[in-house]
């Protein structure tokens, strides 16, 4: 039987398994979608609902979301690479979909995808920003070197792309892909979007708080080499 996008996804829905060849087939279809023009076809509702996507979703979006899901499962964190690739070449109606589990990764991924955020999730990011500032101060005031973790590249690229779209005059430095900066930058970006006018001192207020803390204790984040 010849493969189609529909029967490949229906096969996955049936047993939640997909071969490498079929996955490569979907990636090939995704690459074709990136470069194609015209109005995309709509995926049948029985497939989009099984993939937890809204009814009326387009085939290109369904394929991109499925590929992101598969890669997320393999690497252990949320991936939005394929949807971002698709978004650079196509314009779709925005259908806000939020992850059920609240953590830094999911909240920032949803912010990038939906280009909006609820008050409760903004409060969550503010709490995480304050918590990380507190952790930094506690570690460094006791004379230790502050060590932290990096966030996925897709988050840094996604936030920078969102900032460009919002005409926010700042970008995250990809050589410092740390959660402290990603969360602070997201909060500064949200502040930029929500206010009609903004003081220059507020432009990068949260990022400045991170930098002030590091400078005060004469410490700095290590550069992450890109390969």
How would you portray this structure in words?
- The protein has 227 residues and is mostly helical.
- The chain has 2 domains: 5-87, no CATH class; 104-216, no CATH class.
- 58% of the residues lie in helices and 0% in strands.
- The protein is built from 10 helices and no strands.
- The protein has helices spanning 5-15, 20-35, 45-50, 59-75, 81-87, 104-114, 119-141, 153-165, 179-194, 205-216.
- Helix 4 packs antiparallel against helix 5, helix 7 (119-141) packs parallel to helix 10 (205-216) and helix 8 (153-165) packs parallel to helix 9 (179-194).
- The longest helix is centred in the middle third of the chain and has 23 residues, at 119-141.
- It is elongated, with a radius of gyration of 20 Å.
- The termini are far apart.
- Mean pLDDT is 87; it is low at 91-95.
- How many separate structural domains? 2
Helical amount:
55-70%
Strand content: under 5%
Task: Describe the global form.
Answer: elongated
Order of helices and strands: HHHHHHHHHH
N- and C-termini, Cα separation: 42 Å
How many strands?
A: 0
Helix/strand class = mainly alpha
Q: Measured on Cα atoms, how large is the radius of gyration?
A: 20 Å
Give the uncertain stretches in residue-range form: 91-95
Number of helices: 10
Average pLDDT reading: 87
Could you describe the largest sheet, including whether it forms a barrel? none
